[in-house]
Amino acid sequence: MTEEQGYQLPLPHFALIESADLLNPASGLTKNAADPILVTHDRYLIGGMRYSAAPLSHCRIYDTLADAFAAVKDAVAGNLIVDPEGLEQPLLTTLDLIRHQQKYAPTLSVTLLLSSSQRDVQRFIKSACRCRILNRHAVLDAVRLTPTAPEAGADAPSARGDFNAREWDILIQLAQGRTLREIARAQQRPYHRIIYRLGCILTRLKYTQRQQLLRLLQQVNNPPCENTPN
Predict the structure, then answer these.
(1) 165-227 CATH pick, 1.10.357.10, 3.40.50.300, 1.10.10.10, 1.50.10.10
(2) N or C, where is the chain less crowded by C-beta within 10 Å?
C-alpha cells in the first residue's frame, strides 16, 4: 500500500487530461456515482486524474488490485480504472484478477488504459473480462481521451467474458508452459476435448494457428517493461 491510497494528491499542471469519455454515461462514472478508483503506480497519470473534472478528481488511488477490490467489496457497484502498464505484473495476471473479481461482483465497472492498438490484444482482453478500453497514450499526453475503435461486427462480451472457465484455465496453463496433454491431465478431461476447446479459443481470437496464440500469450504474460518498445 502506498501513501497515495485514499488521498487526493497535489499534482502537476501539465498532467491535465480531457475526461469526456471517462465521464460517458456508459462508463458509470457520473457525478452521482461512487468515487472511481484508479489502480496504478504512474504518478504522472495520478496527476492527470487529480486535475480532471469531478468525479475523476476524487479518485482514490491504489497500487494493487487486491487493495482496490477490498475498497469496493462492500459497495453495490464500483467504478475501477486500471492501468495495467502502471502495475508491476503481466497483463495476463491483471486480467485473471479482474475476471475472478467480476465473478463475485457482476456490477463492477472496469476501464482499462491500454497503449497497444493491436486488435488481437484488445480482442483477447475483451474475451477475458467485461471492460472498456481507453487509449493510455492520450491520457499521458494530456490530449483528448478517446476510446479505442470497436471492431466491426464484434460481439458484446458475455456475462463473464467470452472465455469460459475451462478455456481460461487452458490459456493460463499454456502461458505457464504446459503442454496440451498436461492440461488434459490437470483438468481430468479427454485430450480431444482440450483440442476442441483450443479450437474454440483460436476461432474467437480469429487465429488459424496455435503458434499465433502462443505468441500472444507470451506477450500478455510479460511484465509491462518487457512489452515497451525501445
Answers:
(1) 1.10.10.10
(2) C
